[in-house]
Design brief:
Blueprint lengths: L1 E8 L2 E8 L2 E5 H9 L3 H9 L2 H14 L5 H10 L9 H8 L4 E4 L5 E5 H11 L1 H45 L7 H20 L3 H7 L13 H19 L4 H21 L8
Antiparallel strand pairs: 1-2, 2-3, 3-5, 4-5
Helix pairs in contact: 1-2, 1-6, 3-4, 3-6, 6-7, 7-10, 8-11, 10-11
């Protein structure tokens, strides 16, 4: 198991793990809501109900090609009857189930696919299920935000490398010192600042003496997206041999057009 997360539901810390790109929720942690000293018994009581068996059977038949339907039928005949008891381990061994798993070790216990865990939550308490789903959705939103942030950061790194490589190959003579080279890189970065923000880094610092960082630290997400695009385009223009004055004029026009498009997008969540 990998990508382990924790969510809090009704005062209980619930472990969520990823297995084969599917989220499994700890039934052991959830069962503490009912009886912290006998979590296995709580899970077994739920598994012994006809409601649970019917749902598990449907889930397995849809998602598990190796599900033992014959053994499932035998279990279903006895589910809910007096004296019928079924543990998670028995269910897994008898039916080749994959929706529920038992594991040992650091994150040991009984886990269930999120679909099944939500049903277990219903049995524990409708209120518990509601908060479980809400916290799980919040976890997914955080994960998606991290994925989006990582993708933007990687794109920015790629475009920055493309930009600096073009400068190194086309604008920097081999005989220059490292200090002289840094002036050229800074000059090109400032050209992009002027095209995007209308002023150089030095001019911004002079206008904002009380702010820490640089002009790009205070840019909006739309400005950063546009700036990343401009780095890539400037690399193309450099390779085409355009002088800086022409590149500045072209990039400024592009920045204006791109910002109009970005600011008019109604679905702002795409840019978060």
């Amino acid at each position: 198991m990998s990508k382990t997360h924790k969510i809090e539901v009704e005062g209980e810390i619930i472990t969520v793990v990823n297995r084969h790109n599917e989220d499994y929720v700890s039934l052991t942690d959830m069962a503490k809501f009912k009886n912290a000293q006998a979590t296995g018994l709580v899970i077994s009581h739920w598994l012994s109900t006809r409601f649970a068996i019917e749902f598990l059977g449907i889930w397995e038949q849809i998602n598990n090609s190796n599900f033992n339907v014959t053994e499932f039928s035998n279990i279903r005949l006895n589910a809910g009857s007096n004296g019928f008891v079924l543990s998670a381990k028995q269910w897994i061994e008898r039916t080749n189930a994959i929706g529920i798993i038992s594991s040992a070790g650091r994150y040991g216990g009984t886990y269930a696919h999120k679909d099944i865990a939500f049903e277990f939550g219903s049995w524990l308490s409708p209120e518990f299920k509601y908060y479980l789903i809400r916290e799980y959705q919040r976890l997914k939103e955080i994960e998606q935000a991290k994925i989006g942030w990582s993708a933007k950061r990687e794109l920015a790194k790629i475009n920055y490398r493309i930009h600096t490589d073009a400068i190194a190959q086309k604008l920097i003579p081999p005989a220059l010192s490292e200090k002289q080279k840094s002036f050229i890189y800074a000059d090109e970065a400032d050209m992009l600042n002027v095209a995007m923000f209308g002023l150089t880094a030095k001019e911004w610092r002079e206008q904002n003496p009380d702010l820490k960082g640089n002009i790009r630290d205070y840019a909006t997400i739309n400005q950063l997206i546009c700036l990343s695009n401009m780095e890539n385009l400037n690399a193309v223009f450099i390779n085409d041999g355009l002088p800086q004055s022409q590149r500045l004029e072209k990039l400024n026009k592009i920045a204006i057009e791109q910002m109009k498009v970005l600011e008019n997008i109604e679905d702002r969540t795409l840019l978060k």
